[in-house]
Design goal:
The complex is a heterodimer. Chain A is of the alpha+beta class. Helices cover 46% and strands 18% of the residues of chain A. Chain A contains 17 helices and 16 strands. In chain A, the strands form three sheets. A six-stranded mixed barrel of chain A has the order 4-5-10-7-9-8. In chain A, strands 1, 2, 3, 11 and 12 form a five-stranded antiparallel sheet that branches. The chains are: A alpha+beta, B mainly alpha.
């Protein structure tokens, strides 16, 4: 028996674990009853010398879990536990974290957000640029005629490669071996993947003989390949159609690759003829040592020399893709900063009585940490929701001005910031300054008709008895905040769990 | 008189066992053969419905071991038991022998 627990010790340990299920107020008595029965049964079995008593006692003690669960799961206890838990600061944080996880699940791990926040999955992204017109107010004017791309490809030494794409993704019906998939597609020139310096995970990008093939060459995104075709390694040889046209899958792109938005599931290779009459988006890879400013002048000169285009009221803009991708993030950050400035002004003015200055540093740190985590989770939920679920056709914005003017998500985020931070402040104000629980027991004090003779308002109390919050019914001035009164320990007996239950029914 | 509480067969058996003088949780298990996970929750429900009453035994009775909690049937419990016996005629056949002493 040396070094090992006796049967009695094992049974006592089982009872100890089970006792944690029992509500605190009944735990001691519950454990006392079980341990007394156990001790008695153990004495009797020892006296009789029963060999099977050890197993029987262990089984009986395991039944204590059911007994403990009965205590915990009575309707009254559940109601009381849920009522108290909803007042706790952990409740708010758990709910917010749960919502964030729910959004992650619904969006498939935030693909749009990741494409904005992470480094672009392109080879040497610092040399990759987009070429667009400036001085436009609508994203439809941002694109350039395709024949300009042809000019740059033939005559411009500043660029290593240039490729066109139809910048707005469209929904397409893809069918591979009878298995359908609805995906967003974008038409691209075959040189686009060379410009991005990306190699396919499976298959190839394009080759000269594709021009003679009547079928459309398709490259799948990793997500489309995984979700719709279960990472089928033989997908390259299967029959496919896209929007009813014959197609062939020539490759699958790496997991993190996206362009021009994270939603795109298939890229259709298109030749010059299909682009010739269109206005297109353009990406180019600049030669090392060539600056964006220099490239802008060179490209504009090429177009002016070859076509006589005067660029009245507009010019060409060469914009690094890294900056372009970060553009939404910069806009969201600016919106957030403006909201934070408004909130700081409100807090500074003293309108919201958030935290008593005389309280200790540890409590102050706890108080502001809770506020920071809560606000951060709220803003994360808002950002994830607007980026992932607003019907934005692009993550790759057409232009700085057009993004601000046309992006629904930016405006929803700006208004949402104001509401979420305001709610966070109001929730913080209605919490105990010591234990952070939500204040309860609202009591109306005074009469509205006697405003001049006394204080009129609502008094809220901490469930643990740490203090009272007096919220005035009618502010004398805008800067008249709610008042917090700290109570000493002698008040705690009045706010015990039992007393609380009696008052709250 | 209408008896408002209707007992399950197991609860009625436990109530009858207590009325026959087997007053401790582990004793009830020994007599009825029911597991602890059934007996104790049933005892809690019977006590909540005021059909039985629990008390801690006296120190004189316990001598040097921990005090045990015992259960006894209340007047309402006896009435409910009578109506349960009418409802479950086989219950009387399952009744244990009446214990002569309180322990």
């Amino acid at each position: 028996m040396k070094g090992r627990l006796t049967t009695l010790g094992q049974c006592q340990m089982i009872l100890c674990v089970a006792s944690w299920i029992v509500p605190r107020r009944a735990r001691a008595e519950w454990r006392k009853e079980w341990e007394a029965e156990l001790a008695f049964a153990w004495q009797i079995s020892q006296a009789k010398g029963e060999s099977s008593a050890a197993t029987r006692l262990r089984w009986r003690c395991c039944g204590a879990f059911l007994d403990a669960a009965w205590y915990r799961c009575t309707r009254e206890d559940l109601r009381s536990t849920s009522k108290h838990w909803s007042q706790m600061p952990t409740f708010v944080l758990s709910v917010l974290f749960g919502v964030l996880l729910l959004l992650a699940g619904a969006s498939g791990d935030f693909p749009r957000l990741r494409s904005i926040l992470l480094r672009p999955p392109y080879g040497d992204p610092q040399h990759i640029v987009t070429v667009s017109r400036t001085g436009v107010t609508s994203s439809a004017e941002w694109v350039v005629p395709y024949f300009w791309v042809d000019i740059w490809r033939r005559h411009e030494p500043a660029v290593e490669g240039v490729a066109a794409y139809s910048w707005r993704p469209r929904a397409a019906a893809l069918m591979i071996s009878g298995r359908p998939a609805g995906v967003a597609s974008v038409r691209v020139e075959d040189g686009l993947f060379q410009v991005f310096g990306v190699r396919p995970l499976l298959g190839r990008t394009s080759r000269p003989s594709d021009a003679q093939d009547y079928r459309i060459g398709l490259l799948l995104s990793y997500e489309t390949w995984r979700r719709n075709f279960f990472c089928d390694p033989n997908i390259l040889e299967k029959r496919a159609t896209i929007d009813g046209q014959e197609a062939m899958i020539i490759g699958v792109l790496p997991e993190r690759f996206w362009f021009p938005s994270a939603d795109v599931g298939v890229w259709r290779l298109a030749d010059k003829r299909s682009f010739s009459r269109e206005a297109v988006g353009v990406v180019a890879r600049l030669r090392p040592q060539v600056s964006e400013r220099w490239a802008e002048g060179a490209l504009q000169r090429d177009v002016s020399n070859m076509t006589g285009e005067a660029f009245w009221g507009s010019s060409l803009q060469v914009w690094p893709v890294q900056e372009r991708i970060r553009q939404p993030l910069i806009s969201y950050t600016v919106a957030l900063c403006i909201t934070l400035l408004v909130m700081i002004a409100v807090i500074w003015s003293g309108r919201l009585n958030l935290y008593p200055r005389y309280a200790g540093a540890v409590r102050a740190c706890r108080w502001w940490t809770f506020f920071a985590i809560k606000s951060f989770l709220l803003l994360s939920i808002l950002l994830a929701a607007v980026v992932e679920f607003t019907p934005e056709p692009y993550v790759f914005p057409p232009g700085k001005t057009t993004f601000v003017l046309e992006s629904v998500s930016l405006w929803i985020f700006s208004v949402g910031c104001l509401f979420t931070l305001w709610w966070s402040l109001v929730d913080q104000q209605s919490r105990c300054r010591v234990c952070l629980r939500r204040l309860v027991l609202p009591a109306h004090i005074g009469g509205s008709g006697c405003l001049l003779l006394g204080w009129v308002g609502t008094e809220l109390a901490c469930p643990e008895g740490h203090g009272l919050l007096h919220v005035s019914e009618t502010d004398v001035c805008w800067l008249d905040p709610a008042q917090w009164t700290q109570l000493d320990e002698s008040w705690e007996s009045l706010f015990s769990e039992k007393a609380n239950d009696e008052v709250l029914g | 008189m209408d008896i408002p509480v209707k007992l399950s067969h197991t609860s009625a058996l436990i109530l009858q066992t207590i009325s026959h003088g087997y007053r401790y949780g582990f004793d009830i298990m020994d007599v009825t053969g029911l597991p602890s996970g059934t007996v104790y929750p049933a005892l809690r429900r019977l006590e909540r419905d005021q059909l039985i009453q629990s008390k801690w035994e006296s120190e004189a009775l316990a001598q040097e071991r921990p005090l045990r909690k015992y259960y006894r049937v209340t007047r309402l419990g006896n009435e409910v038991l009578m109506s349960a016996i009418k409802r479950y005629p086989l219950l009387e056949r399952l009744a244990p022998e009446t214990k002569t002493r309180g322990r």
